[in-house]
Design a protein that fits this description.
- Helices cover about 55% and strands about 5% of the residues.
- By secondary structure, the protein is mostly helical.
- It has two domains: about 90-220, Serine Threonine Protein Phosphatase 5, Tetratricopeptide repeat; about 230-470, 3-Layer(aba) Sandwich (Rossmann fold).
- Strands 2-3-1-4-5 form a five-stranded parallel β-sheet.
- The longest helix is centred in the C-terminal third of the chain and has 22 residues, at about 450-470.
Length: about 475
């Protein structure tokens, strides 16, 4: 196998001697090393290619796979993707590739890389206080690296054991670190999230607006007239779901359009988790739209579709908003959902046990989306989230159907340009093609047994049929 790898690499290297700027060949070599598990070599080849084209979509595809292999997901991956031209992006990958076994204590942490390694391993062990201190040290040493802020925010948002006094101490230290420093906009988004957790809503709004203002002056999408824009009072579109169906890819592709202005983060989670914080808090996450018109803004929280009562809250505030849902074969979606939880240590059961447990609860229910509180004490919603018909039916009793665009995840993957054209037509903006479409947050895992796959297929069959009948279209999920 190793001989064959060397032979193929030599072949591709000869091709590069003829055409040194052939990115497709670099991509092939990087893929070969990745498939062999040699991540150091994979990264070296990617960096060679990035000397030719710093934002190469082909390279980002391979880098995204590496991030998944290293255990990153969700907004952590997005944190990397948001700074593709920053050399620290690529250097930070080396943290886990070449330094992960060498940094075990704060005494060993001499650089921002060391501090990130330490923080990452402490996070895996759920040593939250020490992990926070490590990430704060990384930020202090290198305040321009976005990843440190996202890692810190992950702990603050998802660690339920943090006391208010601990968060207050973090905020105080954080203020001191970013004061008078050159920091990325995400630093202020994270500050806003921390202040929100402390119920300091007015201060959080100010932090989010600071992030928006920083983006305004650095993004060439914005025109001179933008500075005189009025306060935003509406959101143009929502990607409402559903998780593990490609919402991250769809949103990132969409935000490349010159007339789409992105929110402070992909998932604001206002209508399903933060509605009581008020409309001003929500709108602070969006840029005011330029006065000359033609610009749109929105966000993508993939669990809006399946969360109870969200449709009524959205209609209450934005009755004319455009809604996009992207749906995937519910069997493969459930498996992907399971492995996402497994990687993030939110699941310790085997795939078979987790799926069988949920099957036993849901089968035979007239509306399997109407589960009790007891259900969520043991289950994670791997199967329940794929019951699209019941969720869409609720939304479509509130909003007229013409305000929805329903996409297939499989089409976004295999016919990306065509699918994005549909999205642009739905939003009434000109078509816009990208040079490449890297998959974001795609997971990699072993296939499941035929017996379990058949059980899941049999479970979803009648529910998929209801969906097809309701929307009068075929999804062709086997």
């Amino acid at each position: 196998m190793e001989y064959q790898l060397k032979k193929l690499v030599t072949h591709y290297r000869k091709a590069l001697q003829i055409k040194p700027d052939n990115l497709a060949v670099y991509h092939q070599i990087a893929e070969l090393y990745y498939e062999q598990g040699n991540l150091d070599k994979t990264l070296e080849v990617c960096q060679e290619a990035l000397q030719i084209q710093p934002d190469s979509a082909l390279v980002l595809i391979v880098l995204n796979k590496m991030l998944q292999t290293l255990g990153f997901e969700g907004e952590e991956v997005t944190a990397f993707q948001n700074i593709p031209k920053n050399k620290l992006y690529y250097e930070s990958l080396h943290i886990l590739l070449s330094r992960s076994q060498k940094v075990k204590t704060f005494a060993d942490a001499k650089t921002w890389k060391d501090a990130m390694v330490l923080g990452y391993h402490l996070k895996l062990k759920k040593h939250w206080d020490e992990a926070i201190a490590a990430y704060m040290k990384a930020i202090e040493i290198e305040p321009s690296l976005s990843l440190s802020y996202f890692e810190l925010n992950y702990i603050i948002c998802y660690c339920t054991s943090l006391e208010p006094k601990q968060i207050e101490s973090i905020i105080t230290s954080y203020h001191q670190v970013i004061k008078a420093r050159i920091t990325p906009p995400c630093a202020y988004v994270i500050l806003g999230d921390m202040l929100t957790k402390q119920d300091k809503i007015a201060e959080a709004i100010t932090a989010y607006k600071t992030a928006i203002n920083q983006t305004t002056y650095s993004d060439n999408k914005y025109t001179n007239k933008y500075i005189d824009s009025h306060k935003i009072n509406e959101v143009s579109f929502l990607i409402i779901g559903i998780g593990k169906c490609g919402t991250s890819s769809l949103y990132i592709y969409l935000c490349q359009h010159p007339q789409i202005l992105s929110s402070t983060k992909k998932e604001v989670r206002f209508f399903n988790q933060n509605f009581d914080l008020g409309l001003d808090w929500y709108l602070a996450h969006f840029p005011p739209l330029p006065v000359e018109g033609g610009f749109l803004t929105g966000e993508a929280t993939p669990w809006y579709l399946s969360s109870y009562g969200v449709e009524k809250k959205v209609f209450e505030l934005f009755p004319n908003i455009k809604l996009i849902a992207i749906l995937r074969n519910p069997v493969t979606r459930a498996i992907s959902h399971y492995y996402m939880h497994l990687r993030s240590m939110r699941e310790n059961r085997s795939l078979e046990v987790a799926m069988t447990s949920e099957l036993e609860i849901l089968k035979g229910m007239a509306d399997p989306t109407q589960v009790s509180e007891k259900y969520w004490q043991t289950e994670k919603g791997y199967l329940q989230s794929g019951l699209y018909f019941y969720f869409l039916e609720k939304w479509m009793t509130v909003f007229p159907r013409e305000q929805f665009l329903i996409l297939r995840s499989e089409d976004l993957s295999s016919q990306t340009d065509k699918t994005m054209k549909q999205v642009y037509e739905f939003l009434e903006i000109p078509n816009y093609s990208l040079s490449g479409y890297p998959k974001i947050n795609s997971g990699y895992y072993s296939d499941i047994s035929n017996e379990l796959r058949q059980k899941l297929s049999d479970f979803f069959l009648p529910h998929n049929q209801k969906l097809e009948d309701y929307l009068s279209r075929k999804f062709n999920w086997e």
